[in-house]
Amino acid sequence: MFNLGMTLIVLGIGSFLLPLAGIQFRILSIFGDSASGVGVVLAIVGFLLLIPSMSKSKGQSSSSPSQEALFQQDLEKLKPYMEELMDGFNKAETEEELEALYVIIANKAEVSTDAVKLLLIRLVEYFKTQQEQTSTMEKV
Fold first, then answer.
1. Is the per-residue pLDDT at 81 higher than 70?
2. What contacts 89, CB < 8 A, 6 or more positions away?
3. 40 with 10, same domain?
4. Cα–Cα distance between 16 and 47 in angstroms, integer?
5. Last residue of a domain, which of 47, 62, 77?
6. What's the average model confidence in pLDDT over 69-81?
7. Where do the DSSP E strands lie in 2-127?
8. What is the mean pLDDT of residues 67-75?
9. How many Å separate Cα 78 from the centre of its chain?
10. What range does the domain containing 14 cover?
C-alpha cells in the first residue's frame, strides 16, 4: 500500500507541477483540462493509503522498548558469564568456535544465542569506545 500511495501522490503533485513546464503525464493528459482535479483526487487517495502504513511503522517502533526490556532481562541472566564470554571470544579462532561459544553460554544462562551475540556486540563497542577515549586523552 505504501508504494501505491507514493505513486498516487507523485502523480497528483506532478499533475500540478508539470503543466508549469508545458507537459503533463500521458496517463493524466486523457482528462484534458480536468487533469488538475484528477491530480488532487489522486494525491488525496495516495495520502489516505499512506496513513495505515505510517501507523504500522509507528507500531513497530513502539515494540523496541519491550525488546530492550527483554534484552535487559537476558543481560541480568548473562552477567555471571560475561568473563567466560569475553575469554572465549578472545580465544576463538574460527566462526564455528564462536558459534559453539554462543550456544554454550546461551544454554548456561537460559537465553537465546541472539541475546549472547547482542551482548558481545555491545561489549566490543563499549571497549572500542573506551580505547578511543583513552587514545584521545593520551594525545592531549
1. yes
2. 98, 101, 120
3. yes
4. 16
5. 62
6. 82
7. none
8. 77
9. 25
10. 2-62
CA distance linking residue 100 with residue 88, whole number of Å: 10
Query: pLDDT tens digits, residue range 113-127?
Result: 888 888 777 777 777
Torsion 128-132-134-138 (CA) sign: positive
Q: All 3 cell numbers of residue 84?
A: 567466560
Cell of 32: 484534458
Nearest to 99 by CA among 111, 110, 88: 88
The set of long-range contacts for 107-113, using a CB threshold of 8 Å and a minimum separation of 24, is: 108/81, 109/74, 109/77, 109/78, 109/80, 109/81, 110/77, 111/74, 111/77, 111/78, 112/74
Backbone angles phi, psi at 71, to 5 degrees: -65, -40
pLDDT (tens digit, 9 = 90+) per residue, 22-60?
Answer: 888 788 778 887 887 888 888 888 888 888 777 655 555
Residues 56 and 84 in one domain: no
Query: Given the C-alpha cell 499512506, which residue does it identify?
Result: 50
Q: What is the pTM of this model?
A: 0.45
